[in-house]
Write a structure and sequence with these properties.
Elements: E1 4-13, H1 20-38, E2 42-50, H2 54-62, H3 67-84, E3 91-94, H4 98-113, E4 117-127, E5 132-134, E6 140-141, E7 147-148, E8 156-165, H5 171-180, E9 185-186, H6 188-199, E10 205-206, E11 208-209, E12 225-226, H7 228-233, H8 235-238, E13 257-261, H9 265-278, E14 287-290, E15 293-295, E16 298-299, H10 310-317, H11 319-329, E17 336-338, H12 340-369, H13 382-392, H14 394-403, H15 407-428, H16 430-436, H17 438-459, H18 464-473
Parallel strand pairs: 1-2, 1-13, 2-3, 9-14, 13-14, 15-17
Antiparallel strand pairs: 4-5, 4-8, 6-7, 8-10, 11-12, 15-16
Helix pairs in contact: 2-3, 5-6, 10-11, 11-12, 12-15, 12-17, 13-15, 13-17, 14-15, 15-17, 16-17, 17-18
The chain binds one RNA strand of 75 nucleotides through helix 6, helix 12, helix 15 and helix 16.
Length: about 500
RNA sequence: GGCGGCGUAGCUCAGUGGUAGAGCAGGGGAAUCAUAAUCCCUUGGUCGGUGGUUCAAAUCCGCCCGCCGCUACCA
């Protein structure tokens, strides 16, 4: 039986339209999910939308819709974005589904039964936009007398009864958990921040609201709906069918990794494990957070008008090209920048020139000089062996990098082999061997195919369509494209299709 | 204010004690199988500043400057 692997994206808040940040985290999760499938795991890849809360209620009203209708519309947009990004998710969860209500309410009951919830009273300055309370000291007063939160959101004085989660009691348990699970939070800089935050002491957390209705009702507490983050985080559990042990996805919890943006680390790395432990459940194994993109050197913002719609990016540069750029250009956990120039450089230099042209020049030599059939392997020279060894080491190298979400390093490992292959073909010069030693020429061309095979196989998660095309051209059977299949050599004499470019160069449109 | 991180070639960054590295960009050459692609060679840096430890520091320690993140908040 295959080992299980459960990876998630955040569920996206339907308050606004999909943007680069959503697409980026989702593509990273997809790359990881595809890699694990390729590497022999039974994968469950979840994405979806977060649809409750006062912000949605208000946004819906502003749009002249009821919350449900509004959420339907935006959720459909996120689903479309997922399709356009080529996501291979196994489930798309919406927090407005009945299965989710059931799981949330049961989780609440377990936490309450274990004595971690009490009814209290909250009053304070509340910012609807942030869905958060603020202490008076955090606020600034504008000249007109209104107060605003540090985020710039307007606040209002709110007084309401509220259920509380006894988060203050979890400080030591959380710290012990972080110590015992050093890989729980990535990157390490974020881990330090989280631990520092928890060491500073935790306050009990208000986990219900009575001022609006668009949420999941608290069990046996009329008028109370659940705090949006308790609702939202629980989606990861809902999708596994919990608490139904006969559910199809039972056994996937705890999740192997939650991929998230750096803005929601606290919820995932502090609140979420505390909620779960309070309910007697295992925390996720890892929370890996990513940084932001700047565009042409500037932060993306609505006011600057430079917000990039991921589907437009894909329309301009191509899906696999964008996926590659995202994973290649910056470390996953760090901030980074994208620009037209940097996209074109990656696409033309690395995809078209380095990899695409390597395939093209090798395969056209085979087409012309070997009757379009895969040459047999011959006696390997030291140079042959060096190249093949480097190529065959890729699965192990990539596996290690994937497990740590250092995607850009995995790709660098692959490109080292691609560059070595270009050096190899130049030195061996099969076009010259054609006249002097045709037998050796055939061996050289076979070495190139054998080196490109693992390259194309491990790149599949990053660029599924392009690599399917390349593997077709390399004569790798569709059913033999996983990591395990690399152990068996390709059949000598396999007929190869006429070569055609895998990656076109990006040429500027004439103005 | 506290905690943490960063500051290395024009650009993006790797390098944690032993005479400075990669990719891109720039320059020169080779080759001409290939998507005018490739390969080789090469210019370029007082490794933020300063003081110290050491036979030896980008690498360890102190201080300073600049940038960033998390967090806290007083008169």
């Amino acid at each position: 039986m295959k080992p299980k692997f459960y990876v998630t994206t955040p569920i996206y808040y339907v308050n606004g339209a999909p943007h680069i940040g959503h697409a980026y985290t989702s593509i990273a999760a997809d790359v990881l999910a595809r890699w694990k499938r390729l590497d022999g795991f039974d994968v469950f890849f979840l994405t979806g939308t977060d649809e409750h809360g006062q912000k949605v209620e208000k946004a819906a009203a502003a749009a002249g819709l009821d919350p449900r209708g509004f959420a339907d519309r935006v959720a459909a947009d996120f689903r479309d974005m997922a399709d356009k990004m080529g996501l291979s998710h196994d489930d798309f969860i919406r927090t407005t589904e009945t299965r989710h209500t059931a799981t949330c309410q049961e989780l609440w009951r377990r936490i309450a039964d274990n004595g971690h919830i009490y009814l209290g009273h909250y009053e304070g300055f509340y910012a609807v936009r942030d869905e958060a309370f603020y202490d008076e000291s955090e606020l600034t007063t504008k000249p007109d007398g209104t107060r605003i939160a540090p985020s710039g959101a307007p606040v209002e004085w709110v007084r309401e009864p509220s259920y509380f989660f006894d988060l203050s009691k979890w400080q030591d348990k959380l710290l012990r958990f972080y110590e015992e699970n050093p890989d729980f939070i990535a990157p390490n800089s974020r881990r330090n921040e989280v631990m520092s935050f928890v060491r500073g002491g935790l306050n009990d957390l208000s986990i219900s609201r009575t001022t609006f209705n668009w949420g999941i009702p608290v069990p046996d507490a009329p008028g109370h709906v659940m705090y949006v983050w308790l609702d939202a985080l629980t989606n990861y559990l809902t999708a596994t069918g919990w608490p139904d042990e006969s559910a199809e996805r039972w056994g996937f919890w705890p999740a192997d990794v939650h991929l998230i943006g750096k803005d929601i680390i606290r919820f995932h790395a502090v609140y979420w494990p505390a909620f779960l432990m309070a309910a007697g459940l295992a925390p996720p194994k890892r929370v890996s957070s990513n940084g932001w993109w700047t565009v042409e050197g500037e932060k993306m913002s609505k006011s600057l008008g430079n917000v990039i719609e991921p589907r437009n990016l894909v329309a301009t540069y191509g899906l696999d090209q964008v996926r590659y750029f995202f994973m290649r250009e910056k470390p996953f956990g760090a901030d980074g920048s994208m620009s037209h120039a940097s996209l074109v450089t990656r696409i033309n230099v690395e995809l078209a020139n380095d990899l695409g042209n390597l395939a093209q020049r090798s395969l056209s030599l085979i087409a012309r000089n070997c009757e379009g059939r895969l040459p047999a392997r011959g006696e390997a020279t030291a140079e042959d062996t060096a190249l093949l060894d480097a190529a065959n080491a890729l699965p192990g190298l990539v596996r290690d990098k994937m497990d740590r979400q250092v995607f850009h390093e995995a790709l660098e490992d692959v490109w080292k082999v691609i560059r070595a292959a270009n050096g190899y073909i130049d030195r061996q010069a099969p076009w010259a061997l054609k006249k002097t030693d045709p037998a050796r020429m055939a061996v050289v061309l076979r070495v190139l195919v054998d080196a490109m095979r693992p390259v194309a196989v491990v790149l599949q998660p990053f660029m599924p369509r392009s690599m399917a095309n390349m593997l077709d051209q390399l004569g790798v059977p569709v059913e033999a494209r996983d990591i395990a299949s690399l152990a068996a050599p390709l059949a000598d004499g396999t007929a190869l299709p006429p070569p055609s470019g895998v990656f076109p160069r990006h040429v500027e449109e004439a103005a």
